[in-house]
Amino acid sequence: MNPTGSIRRRMTISLALVAALLSLLSWSMVASFARQAAERTQDNILAASATIIAEAIRSEGGEVRLELPYAAFAMLGAVSEDRVFYQIETAGEILTGYEDLTTGSIAPAAGEVRFETTEYLDVPLRMVRMTRTVLAGEEAVPVTVSLAQTRNGIGTIAGDLSETAAALSVAFFVLAVALTGFVAQLSLRPLNELAQAVARRGPTDLRPVRRQAPSELTPLIGSLNRFMERLAGSLRRSEEFIAEAAHRVRTPLATVRAQAEVALHGAQSHDDKQRLRQMIRAIDESSRSAGQLLDHATVAYRIEDLSRDTINLAELAASVAAALEPTAGLKDIEIRLETSDVATLGDKVLLESALRNVLDNAIKYSPDETQISLTVDQQGDMACLRICDQGPGLAGQSTTDLTKRFARGATVTDVVGSGLGLTIASEVLQAHGGGIELADNPKGQGACAILTLPKA
Amino acid sequence: MRYSDIAKGLILAVWASALPALEVEDRKSYPGEGGAMISVLSTADLDVFEPFIRQFQQDQPAIGVDYTVASSTEIYAAITEGMKFDIVLSSAMDLQFQLANDGYAQAYGSDATARLPDWAQWRDLVFAFTSEPAVAVISRERFSGIDLPATRQELISILRDYPERFDQSVGTYDVRTSGLGYLFATQEARNSDVFWRLSEVIGRLQPRLYCCSAQMIDDVISGELAIAYNVLGSYAERRRTQEGGDRMEILQLEDFGNNMLRTALIPRTAENVTGAGAFLDALILAGLAEEQTWAFPPLQPHARQGTPEFGPIRLGPALMVHLDPLTRRAFLSSWEDAMEQE
Amino acid sequence: MRYLLVEDHAELAGAVVQRLEIDGHAVDHAPDLATASACLSAAEYDLILLDVMLPDGDGREFLAASRDRIATPVIMLTARSQVSDRVGALDQGADDYITKPFDFAELEARCRAVIRRRGGSARNEIALGKAVFDLTSGQLRERDMTIEFRNRELRLLEVFARRPGQILSKAQLMDRLFSYDSDVTENAIEVYVARLRKKLAATSVRIETVRGLGYRVEIA
């Protein structure tokens, strides 16, 4: 499967973009507010300083006199390192200060306070102008105070604030991105939980999903359930097909076999009997092969997604032995059980089938009136099932050879049965983390199959 | 008044910028190994400054230095008129500030200027490199039998108690002609009412008015003066180590002290800005040095004992207040009233 | 014993019926579930042989639905593989199952095992003179004696018991006694007859050798 990108990443990126946009917006707003505030502050200070100067103007002997108040200028200097220009003018005559500071600007009326943004000596200025009427002798003389300051301080203050705002915005952004990742994970949790719930299911569990899930997942769950329904239907149909096929093949075989046995019973000549026996053997062999092929397909399918139930191997061994007891009895073979309680985790059907195959094999290869021992015990971390017969032994063949699909023991060419039984057992045990080994019976004649499984 | 005529001209010079040419007090050229030359315009006497120039040239042998001495008002006038100098050093920080405010200085920045505290520079235009207190210098001989005053109030009492002894024996700056004297006077007047009472007391004793610290100190050593009020501490300290220095005593009055910052700026008309920058850096480093390497007191003295810490005069637009002609006229008129009450 | 064979495949059913009758069992044949139901309500059976796939339904489902009213043991006949079908068959209440095609000897052994597990019934006893042969438990009782037999001995005795006085050839006995996948000679029959004689020595049942023809049971 080739993922076309991650939802989480997509969410994180989009949310991060939004956060970046908001950060940028908040920064530019704060920066602009800061500048406005700084400008207002400068205006207020200029106005206050100009007022102090205007208050200091007095008349003496009919003449306008002024001593610049130290405080007015000290105040301007205290706030910022801006250049300061001033001018005091009375009725068109410059009393003191920078002569051409107010060129082109008409003095405000008495009582009026006016702010101007101008230029002087090639630098931008913020200027306040105010006029106050001073009584000089008999005459009321308007005196205009003009006080100007460069705007570097504003720039610096606004710049500082803007930098702080930028730092905050960046911090906000970083935090937002971190939270975004977290939120994305949180939002996707129901999806992950759904995926895990589906993944946890066994291979044959095709029940519809009935989980509480956010409404956005409802269509997905709906589709999933419809899909599972179709899959279940399809599986049912294939199972039915296999069953039908098996039925169609095996029922005629059974008929032929039954009739052959009836015929055998009635046959008189030795040759006839011999032919009928061969016929029955051929039927048995082909039906057995067909059965095992079907079994093998089922096993392979179940191994794909193994269930993990706790299985008591002693009980398992007992039930398998009981099931095969009649078969063994036909040859007066005694199955001896020696079990201790050992548990493993796995698929009960598969393990039962494996053990049955091995035991069935042992019965097939054992001479009449012998014993087969089935022991269950443990060795270290492994549970151990040992099936020992008193048959012909392995004659030097290796486990691999014996368990290899369709192989048959060289010593038992006359026994119906294909080696697929051992192959199935071997595959089941390997799927459970165990294995199967064949060895000559240490207690003398015969062979032992040793099945190992991890303990639960 | 010996200096009254000159004073009139200088007062005009402050605002009218009418002076045709620079009145040079002293000048010396120190050629360097390369062709580069920086022109320095300064209020500091040549003999005080020469060791620093020599030291500078040892470090920067390629740069030649042309050192011109002039009064602070002359310097102000010269720069406003557009005379070309590479760096301007002055003890009149108000005039220096005015030059910067009015756009005659150019901004400069370096590692050295970055080390300066905020109060020692303004807008990268004006840089302080010394902090020099105003002190009083007295003649031991003339003060024999009298307890030395610790405050201005005590000084007033002494002057009142011994009018005969101090008649015509008190020296101070003629604030009309001396930029530095005017700065000290206006700052002191701003800080304390005592200034005007002291001025009135001095005025009754027929004080002698001076243009410069050096002459006042000389006159104290000779015994001609019993006390010189508001003298540059750096000059006094230096003079005490010279001949006759033991006849004088430096008084740092404890009620408050004025600390003038000697400042440098690079005029906008400067031609060798790189050289000027190097010179400025050297000045600042000398001023910031832990150990005193030259004739000037350090910018940041570790202990200024005895006087309450008022800090140096602040570099800021408030310095322009007393340069305003109307304000100046009003101040000088009050001062003259106090000083000339015969 | 009385069997009910539920199997829709007529030829297979015919062969099975024939074969079981050879062994002396009574077999009713039902080709579908409806007939099976009718048979079950009309008569009592020792065992039901139930096919899985039937024209009118699934044998397993039939069994699951009627298990509580039918106490008779059931062996399922299945054409499916062991792994997938076994669990299903046993879960639905079957006593055992056997995969088609089957060996009659094995079918018989399983039937016997299932019946024995369920306790059997008195009808499955054959009187041999003073002795009684219980087919279900596989025991021969005479006076206070109870004789147990091994599997092959038991089957051999059963063959003789069903045909008292009749001469049975070695070949006939071999067909009944051995699976067709083992090559056994007629000498093996002699071995088993010798064992059986030894066990029966204390009883009134005798196995006589009819020279050239075979053996027969004589009751004293």
Automatic annotation (TrEMBL), chain A:
It catalyses: ATP + protein L-histidine = ADP + protein N-phospho-L-histidine. Its EC number is 2.7.13.3. InterPro entries: 2CSK_N (IPR013727), HAMP_dom (IPR003660), HATPase_C_sf (IPR036890), HATPase_dom (IPR003594), His_kinase_dom (IPR005467), HisK_dim/P_dom (IPR003661), HisK_dim/P_sf (IPR036097), Sig_transdc_His_kin-like_C (IPR004358). The keyword Coiled coil does not apply. GO terms for cellular component: plasma membrane. It is found in: Membrane. Coiled coil: none annotated. Keywords: Kinase, Membrane, Phosphoprotein, Transferase, Transmembrane, Transmembrane helix, Two-component regulatory system. Residues 244-456 form the Histidine kinase domain. One of its GO terms (molecular function) is phosphorelay sensor kinase activity. SMART domains: HATPase_c (SM00387), HisKA (SM00388). This is histidine kinase. Residues 185-236 form the HAMP domain. SUPFAM superfamilies: ATPase domain of HSP90 chaperone/DNA topoisomerase II/histidine kinase, Homodimeric domain of signal transducing histidine kinase. PROSITE patterns: HAMP, HIS_KIN. It is an enzyme of class 2 (transferase). It comes from the Bacteria. The keyword Chaperone does not apply. Pfam families: 2CSK_N (PF08521), HATPase_c (PF02518), HisKA (PF00512).
UniProtKB/TrEMBL annotation, chain B:
Pfam families: SBP_bac_11 (PF13531). It comes from the Bacteria. Keywords: Signal. The keyword Signal applies. One of its GO terms (cellular component) is outer membrane-bounded periplasmic space. Signal peptide: none annotated. This is Iron(III) transport system substrate-binding protein.
TrEMBL record, chain C:
GO terms for biological process: regulation of DNA-templated transcription. Transmembrane segments: none annotated. Residues 123-219 bind DNA. GO terms for molecular function: phosphorelay response regulator activity; transcription cis-regulatory region binding. One of its GO terms (cellular component) is protein-DNA complex. InterPro entries: CheY-like_superfamily, OmpR/PhoB-type_DNA-bd, Sig_transdc_resp-reg_receiver, WalR-like, WH-like_DNA-bd_sf. SUPFAM superfamilies: CheY-like. Residues 123-219 form the OmpR/PhoB-type domain. Keywords: DNA-binding, Phosphoprotein, Transcription, Transcription regulation. The modification 4-aspartylphosphate is found at residue 51. Residues 2-115 form the Response regulatory domain. CDD domains: trans_reg_C (cd00383). This is Two-component system, OmpR family, response regulator TctD. The lineage of its organism: Bacteria, Pseudomonadati, Pseudomonadota, Alphaproteobacteria, Rhodobacterales.
